Amino acid sequence: MSARQQQRLGLRRLGRDRLPVDATPAPPVGETLQAARERKGVDLYRAERDTKIRLRYISALEDGDYAELPAPVYTKGFLRNYAIYLGLEPDDILERWRDEMEQQRTATRVAVIPPPMPMVEPGGRRLNITPSMIVAGLVGLVVIAFVGYIGIQLFRFADLSQPLPMTITSPPDVFFQTTAATIELAGDTGSLAQVHITGPADQIYDTNSNAAGGWHQLVNLAFGENDFIILATDPVSGRKSNNLTVTITVPLASPTPAGPATATPGPPVLLSLTLGTPIDGFVTSDPSVVVAGTTTGNSIRITSTYLGTPDSTPAPSSFPSASPASGSPAPSATPVPVGPAVTDVPVGSDGTFSQALNFATPGRWLLTVVSSGTGQAPVARQVTIVVNKAGPITHHLQLTIVTQPALIKVVADGSPVANETLNVGDAREFTATNQFCVKTNNAGSLHLVLDGTDLPLLGAAGEAGSWLIKPGIAPVRAARPC
Prior knowledge:
Elements: H1 3-14, H2 29-40, H3 44-51, H4 55-63, H5 72-86, H6 90-105, H7 131-157, E1 167-170, E2 175-177, E3 182-188, E4 194-198, E5 204-208, E6 214-220, E7 224-233, E8 244-250, E9 273-277, E10 282-284, E11 288-295, E12 299-308, E13 342-346, E14 352-358, E15 363-373, E16 376-387, E17 395-401, E18 406-412, E19 415-422, E20 427-432, E21 436-440, E22 446-450, E23 453-454, E24 465-469, E25 476-477
Parallel strand pairs: 2-8, 10-16
Antiparallel strand pairs: 1-3, 3-6, 4-5, 4-7, 7-8, 9-11, 11-14, 12-13, 12-15, 15-16, 17-20, 17-22, 18-19, 18-21, 21-24, 22-23, 24-25
Helix pairs in contact: 2-4, 5-6
């Protein structure tokens, strides 16, 4: 059979419209793109300007370096645009590119057989310490130390709602009597706490407890009752103790009766004396001041001592005595003060007493109230009052939140001046000529100062109510809310 016959036979087998199958593999996509660009007669820079495809990506497409190309979704866009630019069929180019990518993913990897482990003699296994093990151990120690520190802090601050513990070891009782001029106060509280002691006449003592919580402080005493208010504060958490009051009485010298001395078995029984009005720091423009209170004694003696003009600094007070102070003349510019010197006041059968004193000379006056009883050591109370000239006086009330947030409402002379929630440390100041009414939901958190004088707490922590605050008397609960 001739060659022409063989050709005809092959065409009949393939059909008239079919051509013989070309078994030559197609060149890679990169070579196809490069050949088309060269046929087009443009260089890479011209192609970059025309297609807006970066030169590095065109070069990677032509070199088949697909690792330099971006994500496949962007590469498909580059191929399609570049093929159209070069006059190629974009779908054919994308199909061939997908085949090449699939061939690269399914290419057989050469298996690497690890070398055999060397034979070792049988015996105990040894622990090989590597640098990574050392680093892991150090990191573990740091984590354990940090967790321990956090645990200690959480344990320390977990009970902030409870007050710092405070106990007194010296004197042995919170009501104590002595004839000494000084005494050492001691007790136990939190470790390394700050201990603040406020004594008579606003004497301040500050000390610190040791690591075990023990503390001590030497304080001065005066005749009569000496009240010391002790407060401890944790310097780290700020937790405070409850105010602890210690009363130390130094009895006044009582006159010795004429005739032979008679032995009195046992120590003398202490008298009690409570002064309801006026309070220390009382300011008034009324020359008539009522002194009232209760006692277990038989008689009351009130001694008045002039200290100076209303705006002068109070002179240091001496020990109370049964006669007016001498040797302290008033300033030359001030007339001779007119006021009660020594006044004896009867005591009722129920232990109450009341006496109105008339102070004709405005100024600062020191009132010493002494209670006496048969066979008993006398006790005394001292208060300082200010008598101004007649006319309205403006009283100042300072309110500070000390332990927990509290809702307050303040009414001054019948007019509301505050209604808000305050946080710890917040302070407000109000003025009035007659009285204040304070309403709160946390009476134990309010620290009140009236005309420079600290007032007692209105109530316990969390106690709600309304209180009337007037100059000269302690705060009293109001019959109806403010």
